[in-house]
């Protein structure tokens, strides 16, 4: 087995590694071992300073999003405490990313996987899950339109997923209520961000779907320092987390902001709230591709857009270090 150790930057974690590549070249036992340990990338063309923005490249996970981490933790925990038996079918309602993560994990661990998804999510997601051996069931939209999935669309898909779980005697993942998802980001993503920055960050900025990512990362960072501020990002016309009535349930940030406060977020207090308009997110998505060489989805772009607004606002001082997340690959939206 050939192994090349990761190049560590112990003295100044935020110093950029010059030259080609900075990652490790380890051999992994299975695709499951390739989940997590994603790079933190400085976006120095989008944010020319003062201040610095670093983005955790979660789109590099095997299923193409940060949901791989939650999928893995949920399956491991359920197997460990006997809720999921060997070979038992796993069922979940998904906007596609949790489904892709579960499809990866289930394929590699021998569980059949059934994904229930709103017809409003992009077809590329169905293609990916089916290629990974999943059975995909599509549910008609209630009040959304293709590319704009609402809370009612999600509720319809959840109802179908629960019914099919009963019929098949499956294990229902229940990502909106499953605490393992939060733990994956607390012990994984949050701890990695802390290590990669050497604790030298002022804020973490993130969109909210189930809230597992923001709450998990937020918990870990707060356990290390009360200096780091946690900001929740929402579409400008749907901001229930910030305490505003929902003007429009439709927006382009697929996988996030379903017009109500998700259970994981209920007991959590963000330090601040940031709003992003659809057009701003889509412009930032193009900028990420053209200026930084990074092709990601609209929620990732919303994160970066919100981080840039925060850096420019001077709310955190004149030159803050802000960390955000690149949630998934743009290939999921074609
Ligand atoms: C593209 C995308 N961005 C952001 C999120 C939000 O992540 P979380 O559910 O951890 O809040 C999701 C969730 O599925 C997603 O698919």
Rg measurement, Å = 19 Å
What is the molecular shape?
globular
- Low-pLDDT windows of residues: 1-11, 18-22
Strand % is 5-15%
The appropriate CATH architecture of the largest domain is: 3-Layer(aba) Sandwich
Task: Catalogue the ligands.
Answer: pyridoxal-5'-phosphate
Please give the count of helices. Answer: 9
Structural class: alpha/beta
Q: Tell me how many strands there are.
A: 10
Mean pLDDT across every amino acid position: 92
Largest sheet: 6 strands, mixed
Q: Strands of the largest sheet, in order across it?
A: 1-2-10-7-8-9
Share of helix among residues? 25-40%
How are helices and strands ordered from N to C?
EEHEHEHEHEHEHEHEHHE
**Could you give the distance between the termini?**
38 Å
Structure description:
This protein is an alpha/beta fold. It has 2 domains: 31-63 and 187-333, Rossmann fold; 67-172, Rossmann fold. Helices cover 36% and strands 15% of the residues. It has a 6-stranded mixed sheet with strand order 1-2-10-7-8-9. It has a 4-stranded parallel sheet with strand order 5-4-3-6, sandwiched between helices. Helix 1 (67-80) packs across helix 5, helix 2 runs parallel beside helix 3 and helix 5 crosses helix 6. The longest helix has 19 residues, at 179-197. Bound molecules: pyridoxal-5'-phosphate. Pyridoxal-5'-phosphate is lined by residues 65, 67, 95, 97-98, 207-214, 254-256, 297, 299, 327-328.
